Protein 1
Amino acid sequence: MRFCGCSRETFPLMTTLTSPHDLLAAVPFLIGYHPTNSLVIVCLKDDAIGMAMRVDYPADQEVHDDTYDSLIFHLVREGAQGALLVAYVPEDRNDGEEILSNIAMAMSRAEIPLRESLLISHGKWRSTICTDRDCCPPEGRALPEIRTSRVAVEQIAQGRPMPFADVEGLNDSIASLPLSNDLDFLATVHSYVIDPEDEEIQISQRQGATSVIDLVTRFVDGSIGKDFESDQEISARVIASVGDIQVRDFALGSHDETSIDFYWAMWRYLTRIAPSGFVAPIACLLAALSYERGEGALAQRSLDRALADDPSYSLASLLRRVFSAGWPPESFAAMRKDLHPKVCAGIFTA
């Protein structure tokens, strides 16, 4: 038996947790929204968070041990020194404690210590490993307000936004804007499409790659939005150009640690204004950068948009396998960096 919708997401966010309240406040930041009907497993290294993983709450009440073991395998690969568990139990289920116990036994088989296990049900929480009834009464305690928590203050100070209220809010953050349906804008995008049969395709690829750099420069210097017509023109060129695999792969490797936030903002904006039929490459670029930034939930939702636009888009399927396998973001970034010089040579070398 598999977990329903078993989409595994990883989120590096290094912070220190000192109480169950800290853990309850940290989880929405880790996954980008307030989860429901979910299981969350948090990896600990040196008493700090190294990874968090969310999966859908199991649809069936009977789950075999090997399914739990495959879930815990990600902690083993991360070299976890301990883990925290949180179960967000659906309103019509009462098996949360049993599910948490089964995960804890899988951790024990993998020799990973369980540091905390929290059960969230009907707006209340309690620890399943705390035996102090004054601390953790059987009926549970009301969920704390995370906005005023230490964890929230720390994350906001580091520039992270407050989590979305739910997964629908996360989806809305990359939903199409009206410009994506504008016929004049669509015509402009079409005018920049790179013809794979063009004998001088390398010239078009160079222009497309250059337009990527030109557009992100506007995000870096803050000039984006100050010349709407010019912004539309260059945005249309980038949207069309990354439909070419060479330009797309150039774009995938163009950022570094200092520019990743600007590129992320650009790809997110372009995902929202890209016309139908042009979304998949842009959304894949947003997914890749979101994954590197530790925003695994947004990375998965970006792939949803890519595959909705083009169900056969191969990069989206590849990234889905990479993300679901729990590849460390740094490994993905290293692979991307290795590819970039070869792509640049193919585009810019005569």
Note: The radius of gyration is 22 Å.
Protein 2
Amino acid sequence: MSTDSLWYHLPPPSTVVPTPPAEAPRAPVALSIDGREVEVAAGDTVLDACRTAGASVPTLCYLETLTPVNACRLCVVEQEGARVLVPACSRKAEPGMKIQTASPRVRTARKVVLELLASSVDLSTAGELTPLLEEYGAAPGRFGAGAATVAQPVKDDNDLYVRDYGKCVLCYKCVEACGTDAQHTFAIAVAGRGFQAHISTELDVPLPDSACVYCGNCIAVCPTGALMAKPEFLLRQAEQWAPERQAVTDTICPYCGVGCTLTVHVQDQQIVKVTSPIDNGTTRGHLCVKGRFGFEYVHSEPER
């Protein structure tokens, strides 16, 4: 029998999509959150337990899709018997823990963290932090007009996004997204120490000369607007950015067969931003350069 005739006798390919094996059950861990007994699975964090208990714990450097780096200390809680406050985002839940999420000590610590950030960084586009400053009664002005600041010129060296590190709170989210948690490009990292610590490309070269592939995943995770897509930046500069007037629609990226979900933001009949849902199983909030920035052709005028 020839090879060609044998090919016709092969069984048809299966149309069943394989599914990953079910996760092995994890032992329950019982602990107390603000006097309420809760149970979480072994390996879950104190933050998971707080959310299970319905306790509100603010976060800044934490994101569900990124590895916790314990950078901001905004999520600290008080553990009975512990000498120092506990970072809820990374501390694993342990049996018998007694956690207080809003004790005077905790609230004072969070207030000071917010004051230190707001006294040195421009938080005008940090939508997540503005209500927290009010909630905790933070008064950054008490450090005086001479407080240290990281104000610096905006880095505008490419056509897709700008970097305004005068708004950077060193949450490390962009570094994690550019690294092993998402893109594996490693185009940026933290350089310097102490007050000189900052986000930088390799050898501080301009972005077009770096390893950046312009996926924009760093923009997606930035909580302060230090990294911002060029259309949004230009509209903000012209005082025309109006999220309340934007229509937001989910669609599927047309560029390849992966099937990434795009969230298209449209203002005045123009696409002004593309994001992706963080809870989407395909993208987990991440996109490539085409999905995030490849929409300009929609606005192209037809040739005559």
Note: The chain has a mean pLDDT of 91.
Protein 3
Amino acid sequence: MNSKVPGIVLAATPIGDASDASQHLRRLLETADVIAAEDTRRLRELAARLGVRIDGQLISFYDHNERARVDSLLEQARSGVVAVVSDAGLPLISDPGFALVRAAIAAGVPVTCAPGPSAVLTALALSGLPTDRFAFDGFVPRAAGARTAWLDQVAAEPRTLVVFEAARRLAATLAEAAARLGPDRPAAIARELTKPHQEILRGGLGQLAEQAAARELKGEVTLVIGGAPGGGAPAAPQDLTALVREVNRLVDAGAGLKQATASVAAAAGLSKRTLYQAVLAARPGP
């Protein structure tokens, strides 16, 4: 055991460029009694690039074994330093660690952090979109139905939205986002952040969808989407359904669809685009 204060340290690792590693991380890798790593092989590779030697116990710590590891890690953290690291960035941010932190707090085991690189904040800063208020929503749902429901949920979100998406699903996600949120909704694709081939693509969702489909973008991708124009909280599903019915009633009475949508949206304090997309989605297919 070393002489450092016992407890758990959440340590951020580089998201691309190894030189972004902090001195705190380097010291932890050399001196921690236990290092719980999402991928032990990748951590050893990082340590080699940093020129540091790992002397403590190195164990795997990922989504499927996190809960099974909690009790033993807590016990080790009572008398030694347990460093928790993910493959890239800060643990817990769409990575393992939450169950351990909750259990440590409940058990009175100290928890601290060695902060550092973050794909969320790096993409946000480079996006060119408002940074004063933003929301991080993890990974875009994989299943088509869940993705559609998620897009409907965030359609009226007034804050800038940051999400992770797999490169192979990016074009499909952008195409559906353009259809449901509007092709002109501003967005940015942050690809391979801090790596030699880092690329930031900015534009409307429709434009980015076309680029993603044409180029088959690869690598680690963070997607940033601008907030809904006009702001305001999204309507509850039952309220939105009622508003769609009201639009259809006005259309049946002779009003134009866009005119009816604008009128109902204004009265409800809802984004016109959000309501228009809901009306189209509720209509039977061809």
Note: The mean pLDDT is 90.
Protein 4
Amino acid sequence: MLRLLRPLKGQRGVTLVELMVVVAIIAIIAAIALTLYQNVQQKAKLSADQGVGAALRSAVAIYYGRKNGNFPPTKTVLNTLVSPSPPVFQCAGGGYNYDAYTYVNNTGLITLGVNNAADC
């Protein structure tokens, strides 16, 4: 009869050193993965803000075309042009924030500002 649970002859369990090496390898892999994940999050937030900037740029271009070459007078008016809701920023000011970008109404220039990229 075949015994399924035979005692292992001459073999012992895992040593403490081997266990520590495995834990160290897992810790290194986790540290690398965490930094890569944080970079991906930051890039995604910056991309979202670039999308908001593109929406604002489109709103200015549409206004300019419909108003015979006149730009929107203020950024408050510009926020009302972006529908269905005002712009929400991830990095540039966080949330709905008038100070997240500057707008020059005689040229139509929009500049997004990121004060601290680490908070992004």
Note: The chain has a mean pLDDT of 80.
